[in-house]
Here is the input.
Amino acid sequence: MKSTVMVNAAVLPAPGVKPLVRQYVLPPINEGECLLAIVASEVCGTDVHLYHGRLAGVPYPLIPGHVSVGRIEQMGGPLYYVDGKPVSIGDIVTFLDVYGTCGKCMYCSVWKASTRCPHRKVYGITVGAEEQPGLSGGWAEYMILRRGTQLLQLPAEVSPASWIGGGCGLPTAVHAIELSQIKLGDRVLIQGSGPVGLNAALLALLSGAGWVGVIGSPNTRLQAAKSFGVDLTLDIAESTPEARAKAVRSATGGHGADIVIEASGNPAAIPEGCSLARDNGKYIIVGQYTDNGDIPINPHLHINRKHLSIQGCWGSDFSHVYRAMEVLSRFNRNYNWESFISKRYSLVDVALALDDVENRRVVKAVISPSND
Amino acid sequence: MKSTVMVNAAVLPAPGVKPLVRQYVLPPINEGECLLAIVASEVCGTDVHLYHGRLAGVPYPLIPGHVSVGRIEQMGGPLYYVDGKPVSIGDIVTFLDVYGTCGKCMYCSVWKASTRCPHRKVYGITVGAEEQPGLSGGWAEYMILRRGTQLLQLPAEVSPASWIGGGCGLPTAVHAIELSQIKLGDRVLIQGSGPVGLNAALLALLSGAGWVGVIGSPNTRLQAAKSFGVDLTLDIAESTPEARAKAVRSATGGHGADIVIEASGNPAAIPEGCSLARDNGKYIIVGQYTDNGDIPINPHLHINRKHLSIQGCWGSDFSHVYRAMEVLSRFNRNYNWESFISKRYSLVDVALALDDVENRRVVKAVISPSND
Amino acid sequence: MKSTVMVNAAVLPAPGVKPLVRQYVLPPINEGECLLAIVASEVCGTDVHLYHGRLAGVPYPLIPGHVSVGRIEQMGGPLYYVDGKPVSIGDIVTFLDVYGTCGKCMYCSVWKASTRCPHRKVYGITVGAEEQPGLSGGWAEYMILRRGTQLLQLPAEVSPASWIGGGCGLPTAVHAIELSQIKLGDRVLIQGSGPVGLNAALLALLSGAGWVGVIGSPNTRLQAAKSFGVDLTLDIAESTPEARAKAVRSATGGHGADIVIEASGNPAAIPEGCSLARDNGKYIIVGQYTDNGDIPINPHLHINRKHLSIQGCWGSDFSHVYRAMEVLSRFNRNYNWESFISKRYSLVDVALALDDVENRRVVKAVISPSND
Amino acid sequence: MKSTVMVNAAVLPAPGVKPLVRQYVLPPINEGECLLAIVASEVCGTDVHLYHGRLAGVPYPLIPGHVSVGRIEQMGGPLYYVDGKPVSIGDIVTFLDVYGTCGKCMYCSVWKASTRCPHRKVYGITVGAEEQPGLSGGWAEYMILRRGTQLLQLPAEVSPASWIGGGCGLPTAVHAIELSQIKLGDRVLIQGSGPVGLNAALLALLSGAGWVGVIGSPNTRLQAAKSFGVDLTLDIAESTPEARAKAVRSATGGHGADIVIEASGNPAAIPEGCSLARDNGKYIIVGQYTDNGDIPINPHLHINRKHLSIQGCWGSDFSHVYRAMEVLSRFNRNYNWESFISKRYSLVDVALALDDVENRRVVKAVISPSND
Here is the structure.
């Protein structure tokens, strides 16, 4: 006789509707799938967007939570890590939140740009709670990972809280830093002091930058940046564009930054970022994740005459998650990503967590179902 | 006893003032300099901008003419070509219109972006007629090339008229094509059918593109593009943005072009170009040579989510001129760049030439002082 | 009642043992698979290596034939081309000879080097005749393509014979040319005049090279190179290294070639290729497909002081096959790849075909089962 | 009345002949030149090669000393730093040891590979003591820098001893690291523990490597590597190739290093380095500065099948010296490059210094004329 197991999950029923806890029947685990007992799941800015219905094509009701850590409880047949090692029951793992990348479309197989594959699905964002087999987000006691999901075991020196402290901002920043190809001594300016911006600043420091500046707010986040070695911080709420330009030019021999990384989400950052990069510099735009409208730029002054290189950065693939783990594994003893976590919330407090993130009362919020 | 030689030159006295012919005393040729009897000099869109005073920092009165071909008449000591061969009296040569690049500033020696060297000067654009030793533009019987100017001999198979038919648009297009890194089979869209656009289209075809489209006008230029093998032409004056998008998508499997090269000078081309590139495609912006104001773009849709790469392209260096000559030397028998020349003008007809270029009555106009 | 269909296939029973024709029972087509009636299949140098047992890890008995064209006869469920279009019964297709690339290992998902994926298998080379479901090579009346094999439809302008005329040498050359990143006017030297070398020479011409030279033999192949536009050919059998060095230096301003592509398979080509590249040039090594032993090089003279860039090139992925088809589709009217085919052979004449290829009596041999 | 000033300098009279101190008349300083009172000058492995006559084309007698720090004593007219700031009497400076790079040859102006410019000259190596105006090496009380030499002022936080502690190995390592394009988490193996190897190891750590290993000797140098954070050291004198391979594979998931940097000067390092790099990895060869003969490699196993990328690295340009100073300025407080200096020598003890360097009794030796 088989008993029915019920799983608690926090659900966004529809755009703009408050999250609530629902119970789902735990289905059988099919071949290629695995069952994860969630230890911790991130709350990030995307989740706020999901709550307000700002992303297109999201299938509500939705169990959010795209970056999560859990314990392997069941497997539908043998699974393997990227290095060929078999996955075992009890392993503490995270996973690439993207699955279903087809490997066969023009993006995957000809253009080598798998983050634009039209078949990719993202746990907690583009997979609805009612889509089979269910339990598709990390704000729940259990989650079912679909066939082909890439798992990554947490090494001893990386706690679940450290990984969630990095959150999706860390692999996103790894991607942005990869595109920026920092050379030893380069002067790097970050626009934005959210999780992506702070991680990008830290990774720039670890990549040999000669100077790193951050424009952002609120002051607590800028203090965090200062604490791990950022050379200059500028509070966007308490400075004029002219003052920022003056400060950046003063720190870069009058030329502007070799590399600017936009991680603010504010369209107004774009023309300012173009201006603050030096001629023939690089500008990585990673923060414009949602459509916040148009912004005027001057193509002559901002792009052509500057001989500027601009690179949009969208999504992460497994390499970014893998490298993020390598970074955490090596540098967590020095930088303690866990300290980004301001507060932990149970499943019933998800609404409060969203409110705290939206109002920037916390750097990083984490959902902890009762599994640890 | 030495006689005084007088040289006729067409001069722009001041912004907006009609050009006229002035006579200058031929000065002695100093060490490192050489005297060139001008055979042909280009009239390009930049010259129209100069006439109207649209470029900042131009020292009027000015003898225009930055791309020219001439015969070596005198040398102030031995000079050498890039391959080490000595320059001889009577050689038919052209030259990089930029000189004075310092080799020592941050742009030249650290950032390897010599087209942004603040010390570079451009014959016919940023050197005034009254700056010593004078005769600093090609719309004249003679021109004096300053010490360090890089000369390039015309091989037998490249006539002066072919080189001027290519004009400054050819090395500019070489630079844009270099930045676009076309792969075999790539689909390349050119915005603009002026000299830069037409040359870029032709060079894309020669670089292994699988499909080349051109958006431009007037129809005569689009016909020229068709004649040398362009697959699709779209008349900007007779099509809507929607129709153009539909045509480009239809030719690119619904995705947009792998590479878009902007060579139009119109800010409105920028958001359209972003849209017409495929996700993770490349967009080279080379046409925004003057400041024509701002244009709204959507950083989420146009850059970030597209994972688009945008590269501003400013100026040419000697490598582009050298490669332009290699191209002309090899392919001129097939494509006859001389045919771009619509009309020749003497020094007294310079005003007419500018008017014809401005009103696009000609593809390429050439000034022929009486030296051939 | 179901009748049993028997399929004729040419088989290599073991290393060094003459090929013979065997009959196999046509199995049912499972989900994800498809049945191809072979129209034409290539004989290439690899097949000669297979016959002699020179490749490690080959599972004999083997049905050779990795590049093939066929007609879709059956499908185990719907299949799609890379552009999303459904595959239909009767379509004339080719396919990437590599399948099973896992998408999940370090090579596939972190290092973006899928040609080094340890799980990849190659039809006609690393899949034995007895491996389920069988019919794993193109030298047969029918072939069964495994789940996940990437199909490519032949457009109207590309005949099966043209595709086989290009053979595996064409996508291999596309890969080598991609790595060589030719710029307009570059001088490119090819070592080897087999199918890879000839295709590389042709693709270099189509990519804007300013000069292309080929070192190879026999003379008939060098004549072919000349016929499609190669500037200089040097017969390896009738020239000394000194004479070749002199000829290449004479054609490259004394410096050596900007890019050298090795496609000879002879280790002795390596030090010569290093010497014939200019300082800071590029050297692509694609021909050393089998282990022919060591060769002495001088790391100071050949690599370090030259500031030389050397790139090994192994295998092809779908992008190279896709781009090869784009090239053929566009340029076949000018270059007629079908003309590389010297002779056609039936399944019973496979031994003769191998002998003709080994002794270079033919440029390209093709196996034609009786399906067209 | 003008008095004659005599300058003491250590001179190598001819290959293999012991150095001695000679006196030279201080000549007048011409326009574009400057006079430097030498504070410290490096002794490096190249100087040992010069003593033994192992480099071709060296004009003896020679005053060695290519990396030096000095105080500006006289200037023949105004001079400027790279940022445009004027040079002043009394400034403590170093300089790019290469001058005379022409900016006009194929290497400088077309191929952007100025380290292969045939006109470049190197102080202390390719400029003889008797070449006008003399005083062309740093092992002397004074040195005369030629027109166009690029100066770099030492910031307050970089002592002359720190800069010499870095020596020419530091910019050389900056160049090698630039070519290696390290990504976050990459595993980097260095062959050689001389100044270039140790600096490369340190810069790899500063560039975000996830693991750094060093193969070298003697043990004191490997201890130095350990002390600044290298993960694994292997003593070449006390290990077999098999043991080294095992250790590297064990540290890299069985694959080999993502990046190998050869800085040993031993040809035998080359095939071992190819083997220790992972498939599709990168191999930078920077240590083969002199011709130590041939070495057998297997082009199939070492290059082609590995899909390996090999890059020769020759010489430094100003960007590498500039970035070296940025690195030192930022990280010297953490890593104390001055500690690489084992011993200081006066001009009369130059023979002893060479002997100590040759026999690896010191990591870094420095010549201190009596100027500080």
Remarks:
- DSSP finds eleven helices and 18 strands in chain A.
- Chain A touches chain D through 21 residues (CB under 8 Å).
- Chain A has a mean pLDDT of 96.
- Residues 169-312 of chain A form a domain with the Rossmann fold fold (CATH 3.40.50.720).
